[in-house]
Design brief:
Number of strands of chain B: 10
Strand content of chain B: 5-15%
Largest interface: A-C, 106 and 110 residues
Distance between the termini of chain B: 63 Å
CATH topology of the largest domain in chain B: D-Maltodextrin-Binding Protein, domain 2
Structural class of chain A: mainly alpha
Helix content of chain A: over 70%
CATH class of the largest domain in chain B: Alpha Beta
Largest sheet of chain B: 6 strands, mixed
Low-confidence stretches of chain A: 1-11
Shape of chain B: globular
Radius of gyration of chain A: 24 Å
Oligomer: heterotrimer
Structural class of chain B: alpha/beta
Distance between the termini of chain A: 27 Å
CATH topology of the largest domain in chain A: MetI-like fold
CATH superfamily of the largest domain in chain B: Periplasmic binding protein-like II
CATH architecture of the largest domain in chain B: 3-Layer(aba) Sandwich
Chains: A mainly alpha, B alpha/beta, C mainly alpha
Largest sheet of chain A: none
Shape of chain A: globular
Order of helices and strands of chain B: HHEHEHEHHHEEHEHHHHEHEEHHHHEHH
Number of domains of chain B: 2
Mean pLDDT of chain B: 90
Number of domains of chain A: 2
């Protein structure tokens, strides 16, 4: 924490609003931690423990010497093992390709001084407002005609539908970069492409990482398009597998495996988030700011 | 952030260890073990040319039926050399994947679902082909054909025919519905003869800690049982479907239907507290836990509940009994509901020969008995074991005096399924919650139905 | 400056190569399908192997008369407005406190957490939280009864809209707190110090400093909220129903309506009606976003 000036007497005055706010902040924070604890603990419990002792530590599976029974079930029986691989590959590639396509576009739209670029940026940003439901039917019909009603088709769709938000976010970044470095590179005789790759991209690194993470989180959790496009189980993504497993688990009372499945969906993103939280937060600031 | 770091470590360890196999506990019964250990029967028909086919299953791999079909697939591959590509898509595979796939050439050869759903979603748009030829195939027990081994009532009914009059489904599981109770908890239960007897049975079974009837009110078609069961006893097979198809809605002004609504409303006080805020399968589990004495549900109830009890670590020597709704006063049709789950073959199938051979093969007694032995459900073959829990229901189904009605009289397929969601479900829920009187319920059905059909054009 | 002029010229030549891939995908996968959906909304089309046939405004007439659509429409508006007001009130309340709270960064990170959880998973989890079962209540009723209240039937179709609204507020506020806090952090601290010296209350500081200086960010955040709330689907589908089948139509959203008429239908799908509903969604989002921008428009403040 940086140096903070002493608060003036005025702010010491009791304020009901601030009191309420503080209480609510702590309540919500505590609740979120509780949710996290519940999720992780429940992933190691039997159904009866989950429902009758929601806040106790897990014990039955540990006593029987199979602490990871639920994860094993989700991994092997509910197909999460395969899904982890497909999801990591699909989401990883889709986010990288999205950013690789969006970054030059955002750069061109903000820093080339081309007339009409502002309007064009707005046109692309409007795409953020198009609900997936609006495009899913024609996309499915056309892509299935060319046999892309599978994970490859889903990949293209993910990339294409992530572009508006990514371009929008990155234009914010490129706009905030100082002109001087670009000009210096130009005076040194660097080509425009080289300036972009060796000067501007490194400068916008924060924005690129934010775009990668936010897209990764969004696509990792995407269900609707995955339901529509994927029917080969070997290609199921985690959230698609979870959606199917949810139905089966309620018929079979397989709550332990179900929650382990939820944990497999949630925890990798949590890990990513914990490591990169600061990036996301700075990124959002610049992207949404100005 | 020490909390988070510990968490991350736990996660990493969890992911690593989850990958490798350690022992799991085993809920399989001796019958199930014997079934999976038994050798594969010889198929009656071997495909001549097809080397593979694709099957989109309504089960998931680890469900009992999924495991049984999994064995059949392994056996079929072993005995015929035909490769079976299975996708275990679960119950909604037919609408989430098969329906949309009909727009393309990329369809499975074989799929399964219940006859009403298949009729509405796949047959109506012309997505299936006739399976009459399967009925003539041998099942691998001497000269017996599929038609020989199936009970006639499982195939010969109008809703199992496409517009050319051909059957489109090869049944392998039979579903019915009943009032269920735990024989150890609720003793000396006889089939009630009158509605008054039913109510007094409910009345006497109530205690401070136990309600009479449990119900998962978030599933619309579970709420649908009560009224349709009673109404079908007034209208008989096809009568309810006809009333619902009436464009004017005036067919609801039938005194029998009003009576059925009145009897339905009388059930309400016996429902468990919270039935209308349920989250399936919460309330069937409350019934299993003994919070309620009775549950009206399909014939899959004992098997689902038993799996729940096993996973709860409860001793599962309990047995379940069942009885039917009695005849309401003035009713004239002594009905029992039945619906079959079966295999369909798509019109654009690339390997129909192999798919059909597999459908016939699964009806072989040695394979089909997995449905009762492992999955504890009924099959459309009369000569296969009946699970203990389902004996009373099976006796009713086999009773020649009973009139067989398709589940919900086939209402679920009306207007592509939209009649139930738009017209019936909201009114029915309001009736069960006491927000509509029986008369208002009938009035509302009559008026919303007229609007509904006008809208459908 | 000749080098720069030449550089700008060279740069402009790169404009198209840099922009075309993104634009091409944008047009092919968003613009054209949207137009196709508009066209298809005027056809009768089951979407199960049949071909679309012209049907005029039939689908739209059907929508207007359909109770399921009316519920979907109203519920969606409730999520957008009630959820939006709730989320932003909560977010503002938090910014007021978090600005000078010890450990604010950690708390912010924890508040953001629900945003990284798949909506399907959130729906399942909240199903457990809002369970109503005497003697074995879910977390919400457990706390309620411990505090001496009466247990509520949160998941009954009549209540579930409000339960989802509350859940949405909880789950989304972290995202908007992050955005708003970032804007608040950019406000020069001396403004707050001066007002402290003048004895301003937190409310005065909020209305005189925070609100005007973050107005533009609030506008952007409001648009993002509207867009996201309008397409809400998985969370409600899983929370209000059994998860496999559609929930009672009393609890539907426009997103669920589209899904139920297409890939989630119990019988024959109705792609024509689904397309009409999708068109309604995009019209609604346009109207709301334009209205919001109008409402938020004002001259940027300099500080």
């Amino acid at each position: 924490m940086a140096y903070k000036p002493k608060p003036a007497p005025g702010s010491r005055r009791f304020s009901p609003l601030k009191f309420i706010g503080t209480v609510v902040v702590w309540l919500v924070t505590a609740f979120n931690l509780l949710v996290l604890y519940w999720l992780i603990a429940a992933a190691f419990k039997t159904p009866i423990e989950i429902f009758t002792k929601p806040f106790a530590l897990p014990y039955t599976w540990f006593q029987r010497g199979v602490p990871f029974r639920n994860f094993e079930y989700a991994w092997n029986q509910a197909g999460f093992g395969e899904a982890v691989v497909s999801t990591v590959l699909l989401v990883g590639l889709a986010t990288v390709v999205t950013v690789a396509i969006s970054a030059p576009a955002a750069y061109a739209l903000t820093r080339f001084g081309v007339r009409g670029a502002g309007g064009l940026t707005n046109v692309i940003a409007v795409g953020m407002g198009v609900p997936f439901q609006t495009v899913v039917i024609p996309l499915f019909v056309v892509l299935s005609k060319v046999h892309l009603d599978n994970i490859y088709g889903l990949f293209i769709v993910y990339v294409a539908l992530s572009i508006p938000f990514t371009v929008f976010l990155l234009t914010g970044f490129f706009r905030s970069l100082p002109d001087e470095l670009e000009e210096a590179a130009a005076i040194d005789g660097a080509s425009a492409t080289r300036t972009f790759f060796s000067v501007m991209l490194p400068l916008a690194r924060g924005g690129l990482i934010t775009a990668l993470i936010l897209n990764a989180i969004g696509l990792w959790n995407e269900t609707l398009l995955a339901i529509v496009f994927l029917k080969d189980q070997a290609e199921f993504t985690l959230s698609r597998a979870l959606f199917t497993f949810y139905g089966a688990a309620s018929y079979q009372s397989e709550y332990g495996g179900l929650i382990a499945g939820v944990a497999l969906v949630v925890l990798p993103m949590l890990l990513l988030y914990v490591v990169l939280a600061r990036q996301i937060i700075t990124g959002l600031t610049l992207g949404s700011g100005k | 952030m020490p909390v988070k770091r510990t968490m991350a470590v736990t996660l990493a360890v969890g992911l690593v260890v989850a990958g490798c196999g350690t022992g799991t506990y085993d809920p399989e019964t001796p019958e199930a073990k014997a079934y999976f250990a038994a050798p594969c029967p010889e198929p009656g028909v071997k495909p001549a040319s097809d080397k593979e086919f694709t099957y989109w299953s309504m089960w998931t791999k680890d469900e009992p039926q999924g495991k049984v079909l999994g064995k059949a697939v392994r056996c079929f591959q072993e005995k015929t050399g035909v490769k079976v590509k299975v996708q275990w898509l679960g119950r909604k595979g037919y609408s989430q994947n098969l329906g949309p796939a009909l727009n393309t050439d990329n369809v499975p050869d074989l799929f399964d679902q219940d006859v009403t759903k298949v009729a509405a979603a796949i047959v109506t748009p012309g997505g299936t082909q006739s399976v009459e030829d399967v009925y003539a195939m041998k099942v691998g027990e001497g000269d017996k054909t599929v038609r020989d081994v199936l009970s006639p009532s499982s195939i010969d009914f109008p809703q199992n025919k496409d517009k050319d009059g051909n059957n489109f489904l090869v049944p392998y599981e039979t579903l019915s519905s009943a009032w269920w109770f735990n024989r150890d908890q609720t003793k000396n239960v006889q089939q009630p003869k009158t509605m008054a007897e039913l109510y007094s049975l409910f009345q006497s079974s109530q205690t401070k800690d136990r309600s009479a009837v449990s119900q998962d009110g978030d599933i619309s078609f579970y709420n649908m049982y009560f009224f349709t069961q009673l109404a079908e006893r007034f209208t008989g097979a096809g009568g309810l479907y006809a009333a619902a198809s009436d464009r004017s809605g005036q067919s609801w002004r039938n005194p029998g239907l009003l009576k059925a609504a009145e009897e339905t409303a009388k059930l309400r006080p016996f429902f468990i507290d919270g039935w209308d805020a349920a989250k399936f399968p919460q309330n069937q589990q409350r019934w299993a836990d003994g919070d309620a004495s009775f549950l009206y549900l399909g014939s899959w109830a004992p098997s689902e509940v038993r799996e729940y009890l096993t996973k709860q670590g409860v001793d599962t020597k309990v047995t379940f009994g069942s009885f039917q709704f009695p005849m309401p006063e003035g009713a004239t049709h002594d009905i029992v509901e039945q619906i079959t789950i079966g295999f369909g073959v798509t019109k654009k199938a690339k390997h129909p020969e192999a798919a059909k051979a597999f459908a016939a093969y699964f009806l072989n007694k040695e394979l089909l008995r997995g449905i009762p032995d492992v999955a504890s459900n009924l099959v459309p073959r009369p000569d296969v074991d009946v699970p203990e829990d389902l004996k009373s229901l099976k006796a009713v189904l086999d009773d020649p005096a009973k009139e067989h009605v398709l589940q919900y009289d086939g209402l679920e397929s009306l207007a592509g399924g939209r009649w139930t969601t738009d017209v019936f479900d909201p009114a029915n829920l309001a009736l069960l919650k006491g927000q509509l009187t029986p008369q208002q319920f009938i009035d509302r059905l009559a008026s919303t139905q007229a609007t509904f059909w006008r809208n459908q054009g | 400056m000749g080098a720069i002029a030449a550089h700008v010229g060279r740069k402009r030549r790169l404009f198209l190569p840099f922009l075309v891939p993104a634009m091409a995908l944008y047009v092919a996968f968003l613009v054209l399908p949207t137009l196709a959906t508009v066209v298809l909304s005027f056809t009768k089309w089951a979407g199960a192997g049949d071909t679309p046939k012209p049907n005029g405004v039939g689908n739209y007439q059907q929508l207007l008369n359909s109770e399921a659509f009316q519920f979907s429409f109203v519920n969606t508006l409730i999520y957008v407005f009630a959820g939006g007001v709730g989320t932003f009130v909560l977010a503002f309340l938090f910014t007021m406190v978090l600005r000078d709270m010890r450990g604010g960064k950690v708390v912010r990170a924890i508040l953001f957490f629900p945003n990284i959880v798949a909506p399907v998973a959130l729906g399942m989890f909240l199903g457990f939280v809002f369970k109503y079962q005497p003697h074995k209540q879910g977390l919400a009723n457990f706390i309620l009864t411990e505090l001496g209240g009466t247990a509520q039937k949160f998941l009954a179709p009549d209540n579930v809209t409000w339960v989802v609204t509350a859940s949405l507020i909880w789950a989304s506020s972290g995202f908007f707190i992050t955005i708003l806090m970032a804007a608040v952090d950019n406000i020069p601290p001396y403004l707050y110090e001066d007002s402290d010296l003048a004895g301003a209350s937190p409310w005065q500081k909020f209305t005189n400093i925070t609100l005007p200086l973050t107005w533009d960010v609030i506008g952007v955040a409001g648009v993002l909220w509207t867009i996201n709330a309008l397409k809400i689907f998985e969370l409600v589908f899983v929370l209000a129903g059994p998860g496999t089948y559609s929930p009672p139509n009393r609890a539907w959203t426009l997103g669920i309506f589209v899904f139920d008429r297409t890939f989630g239908s119990n019988g024959t799908p109705d792609f024509g009606a689904a397309c009409a509903c999708a068109v309604a969604m995009i019209v609604l989002v346009s109207v709301l976003v334009v209205a919001l921008r109008r409402l938020m428009r004002r001259d940027a403040l300099q500080y």
